[in-house]
């Protein structure tokens, strides 16, 4: 009974629709025209391929200040965190004992020189007396040997004095390199010893800086293969952009210093080192940064806007293009990497193809469309606005 009632309602609705169509004179529904789409015409261009690698900033030079002699720190001669120059005094140790040793060595040298002078005069007289046979030849030889021995003693005493002066000089600890010095690990009155494990302070040379990054060996093999095939031109001399932790670009560009010759077996990557100027000392040792390096130049490359590339559930990519007949054609394409807001095309498209980037929801393969080049709308002059009607006079 309920099914019969539903059939009657459906028949009544159909009859009402026919009646309304008859009242309008039996006009047919209008036919839709070609779909409106926006396209981008592909052009071959030279593109620099870049890779972004993660790394850490390291000092150009690092030196740990350590004592070479033992003693009590008499005075600290620098300000923590300041810039120091190579050879600048940093610590002064109590050098009374070392100074006494130097004075003793100086006195020993003077004594040896006096003995050597007396031996020289005796040897000269002996050489004259042996000629007149006043003394024997053996006595003369003994006198000459005594003189030579005295000269050797002078050399040994002079070496002892030099060693004592070196030790005395070590009592004043100087900066081995120029750079920014950190905090001191000792204070005045502390006892330090030669060869101790703890450094007194650390000096970092912050200008220039090194950026140490790593790259996968797989990427290296692909890069070399593309260069060998002629698809890519080397670009190791290109400047390197440095991206800071907050995403901003560092003001100074770096240069690639060298690449490691071996691959780390635990990570499958190898190291790269970038040198960059750091006059404002924005970069600090241990800072996390990213380096954008040029891997090569691709001549005759094709770039497609990302909105023109579709990806199916299997991961395959394709693009809709407008063919010579003004109809939509589906093209399977292969893209490799993103460059800005575009994909780099490896195969499937060629220069001159018109890739649809807008209006994709209303079209399908084989449909006729009316294509407009992207950006052409903004190039057209805006229509003049109608003049406002004059106000009626009262």
Task: Provide a descriptive summary of the structure in words.
There is one protein chain. This protein has five helices and 19 strands. It is α+β, with helices and mostly antiparallel strands and 394 residues long. The strands form two sheets. The chain has a 15-stranded mixed sheet that branches. It has a four-stranded antiparallel sheet with strand order 6-5-3-8. α2 packs antiparallel against α3 (137-170).
Kindly list the characteristics that best describe this protein:
single chain, 394 residues, alpha+beta, 15-stranded mixed sheet, 4-stranded antiparallel sheet, 27% helix, elongated, disordered N terminus, disordered C terminus
List the helices and strands and how they pair.
Layout: H1 2-23, E1 35-41, E2 45-65, E3 71-76, E4 83-84, E5 89-93, H2 96-131, H3 137-170, E6 172-174, E7 179-181, E8 191-192, E9 201-216, H4 217-228, E10 241-243, E11 254-259, E12 269-276, E13 288-305, E14 310-311, E15 317-322, E16 328-339, E17 342-347, E18 354-358, E19 369-373, H5 376-379
Parallel strand pairs: 1-19
Antiparallel strand pairs: 1-18, 2-9, 2-13, 3-5, 3-8, 4-7, 5-6, 7-9, 9-12, 10-13, 11-12, 13-17, 14-15, 15-16, 15-18, 16-17
Helix pairs in contact: 2-3
